[in-house]
């Protein structure tokens, strides 16, 4: 059975399903049975045949009759599995006069037929039904949370999310089976009902799981959760996660390095760079490549260790990951030729293998110990708990890939600005001030491919253009941020907003369909010419989120000021100029409108951005990162 796209359609939306084959009929039956959405009609060239199917009680029409529903529907849902066919249908609909923003080709997901309409939310409330549901999930679900699709849809439709949280918490408290309790909390996460208390409970339960590989994979999933939901954090989040990882590694009883290892005699210092997983490109502005290049230029011998610890998650755990990053991918070794091509003789690669998490952890410890580096540069994104052991024998320097994660077990951590790190550490304590290495790394500025023009968006030279960039905007554009921004846009028709990162942001159709239709808000998928796009914009607007730091630096390089919400935390606070940070959406709106209406103030903001960015560039040119590493291992006394 093909699953109705609940995450892409607003509850109670008025929907037309285009295509009455297997996918379309499955969509219709689920939407009707769950009352999640109102299906007005179906469109199919075989409309007369489809109309005769016993459970099809709504109109089935040819596409020519769509005009009679004009103004009555919210979205046309293309129910086609084939991508080429879906694009043809979309093109036909646009030629037919249908607005593109009202057309959705959803992600097509398949679930077992026995799943649908089997387990409703009420099943959790009854002890016997809950037991049967969980036994059925373990037997038939194959670890896929979509097994509870109907239940997740019900939770999505609930207006009082706090009540749902309280209710599920009380149910998990009386559930005896540990795995069942974890599945119930994951159902809430899948439905987007997140809180710090939920995460606290999740960590506490994961710490009790006996199969250690399952425990590790659950904890690593929690470690990445803040990337999607800042509301998952609570004050002791990083401290609790660190303790859980420490317990896990001790339970694995890994063989530790030889304590009597001899110090290397060679003239070059050795730097081991650890990656959780390394694919076919060096993203994040190529900062990883510059990092290694800087170490080599400063006389280090560099070897790279690709750990691949989270690969094949589903084979090791009773539940699929929420974040499949570096789980459902090819091993790093698959990209060996690309790595060699990109880095040349700059570094030697080691690819860790093994059929279990423990084997990979042990192999990484053994290989690193044999090489005996002078320093370990850890870029594993909080998912390599063997660092608890490595840190006891080697100086470990942690370089976060994004956001402000914990220092875990590491000896020193890079922070892009001490003041920002201290502020974040007050909100979510994780490290002592002595562990913070205040230094900046180089980020590559992408080349502008072509000169972009506002005319391609039908915007004028006197319009004030905002831009927001991010691959996770689907998660990070919260409704309480969108609504005030959209109210501001409606009052100021000359302010436009360009969203870049994903071509589908369903919440926009729920909150501001009028602004999408008028073109005041426009959405683009990620493209390779961000420099060109930034060049036509007046301000980079960054909501409260866990990313965006690299793109903000690109904006600053092009003299595009950044107005960022620092109410939670994000990557590059200090590099943007502290005066440009805001502590609420209202403050962001106030600054944007003042910039639009006051050219003197706008120039002052640009000057502040330029000064902060120039300061950052000067520190990068001084090779702060390499000098900080050298100071850390005693090669120099001060930075």
Question: How would you explain this protein's 3D organization?
Answer:
Helix 9 packs antiparallel against helix 10 (212-224), helix 10 packs antiparallel against helix 11 and helix 23 packs across helix 24 (599-621). 41% of the residues lie in helices and 13% in strands. The model has no long low-confidence stretch (mean pLDDT 85). Strands 10-9-8-11-12-13-14 form a seven-stranded parallel β-sheet, with helices on both faces. The chain is an alpha/beta fold. The chain is globular and about 80 Å long.
Keywords:
single chain, 639 residues, alpha/beta, 7-stranded parallel beta sheet, 6-stranded parallel beta sheet, 25 helices, 20 strands, 13% strand, globular
Briefly characterize the structure.
The protein is an alpha/beta fold.
């Amino acid at each position: 059975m093909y699953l109705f796209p609940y995450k892409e359609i607003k509850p109670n939306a008025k929907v037309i399903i285009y295509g009455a084959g297997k996918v379309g009929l499955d969509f219709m039956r689920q939407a009707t049975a769950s009352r999640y959405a109102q299906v007005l009609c179906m469109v199919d060239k075989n409309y007369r045949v489809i109309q005769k199917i016993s459970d099809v009680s709504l109109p089935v029409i040819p596409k020519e009759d769509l005009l009679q529903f004009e103004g009555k529907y919210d979205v046309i849902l293309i129910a086609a599995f084939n991508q080429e066919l879906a694009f043809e249908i979309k093109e036909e609909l646009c030629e037919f006069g249908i607005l593109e923003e009202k057309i959705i080709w959803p992600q097509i997901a398949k679930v077992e037929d026995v799943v649908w309409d089997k387990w409703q939310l009420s099943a959790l409330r009854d002890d016997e039904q809950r037991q049967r549901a969980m036994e059925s999930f373990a037997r038939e679900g194959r670890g896929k949370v979509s097994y509870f699709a109907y239940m997740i849809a019900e939770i999505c439709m609930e207006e009082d999310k706090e009540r749902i949280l309280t209710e599920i918490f009380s149910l998990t408290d009386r559930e005896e089976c540990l795995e069942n309790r974890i599945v119930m909390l994951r159902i809430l996460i899948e439905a987007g009902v997140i809180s710090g208390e939920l995460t606290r409970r999740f960590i506490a339960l994961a710490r009790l799981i006996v199969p250690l590989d399952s425990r590790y994979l659950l904890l690593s999933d929690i470690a990445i959760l803040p990337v999607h939901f800042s509301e998952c954090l609570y004050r002791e989040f990083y401290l609790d996660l660190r303790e859980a990882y420490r317990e896990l590694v001790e339970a694995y009883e890994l063989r530790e390095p030889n304590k009597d290892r001899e110090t290397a005699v060679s003239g070059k210092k050795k730097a081991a760079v650890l990656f959780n997983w390394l694919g076919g490109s060096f993203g994040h502005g190529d900062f990883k490549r510059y990092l290694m290049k800087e170490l080599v230029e400063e006389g280090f011998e560099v070897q790279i260790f690709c750990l691949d610890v989270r690969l094949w998650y589903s084979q090791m755990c009773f539940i699929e990951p929420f974040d499949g990053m570096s789980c459902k991918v090819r091993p790093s070794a698959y990209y060996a030729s690309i790595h060699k091509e990109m880095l040349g003789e700059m570094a030697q690669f080691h690819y860790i293998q093994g059929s279990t998490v423990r084997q990979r952890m042990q192999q990484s410890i053994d290989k690193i110990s044999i090489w005996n580096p002078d320093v370990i540069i850890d870029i594993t994104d909080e998912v390599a708990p063997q660092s608890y052991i490595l840190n006891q024998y080697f100086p470990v320097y942690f370089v976060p890939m994004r956001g402000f994660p914990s220092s875990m077990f590491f000896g020193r951590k890079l922070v892009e600005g001490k003041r920002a790190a201290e502020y974040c550490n007050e909100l979510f304590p994780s490290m002592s001030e002595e562990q913070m290495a205040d230094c900046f790394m180089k980020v590559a500025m992408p080349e502008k491919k072509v000169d972009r023009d506002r005319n391609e968006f039908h915007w004028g030279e006197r319009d004030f253009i905002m831009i927001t960039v991010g691959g996770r905007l689907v998660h990070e554009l919260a409704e309480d941020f969108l609504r005030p921004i959209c109210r501001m846009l409606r009052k100021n028709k000359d302010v436009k907003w360009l969203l870049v990162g994903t071509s589908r942001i369903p919440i926009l159709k729920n909150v501001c369909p009028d602004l999408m239709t008028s073109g005041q808000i426009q959405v683009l998928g990620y493209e390779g010419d961000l420099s060109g796009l930034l060049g036509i914009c007046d301000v980079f607007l960054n909501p409260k989120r866990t990313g965006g730091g690299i793109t903000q630096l690109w904006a600053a390089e092009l003299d595009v000021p950044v107005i960022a919400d620092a109410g939670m935390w994000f990557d590059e606070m200090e590099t943007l100029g502290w005066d440009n940070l805001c502590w609420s959406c209202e403050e962001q709106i106030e600054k944007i409108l003042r910039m639009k209406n006051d050219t003197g103030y706008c120039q002052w903001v640009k000057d502040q951005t330029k000064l902060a960015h120039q300061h950052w560039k000067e520190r990068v040119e001084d090779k702060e990162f390499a000098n900080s590493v050298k100071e850390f291992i005693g090669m120099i006394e001060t930075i």
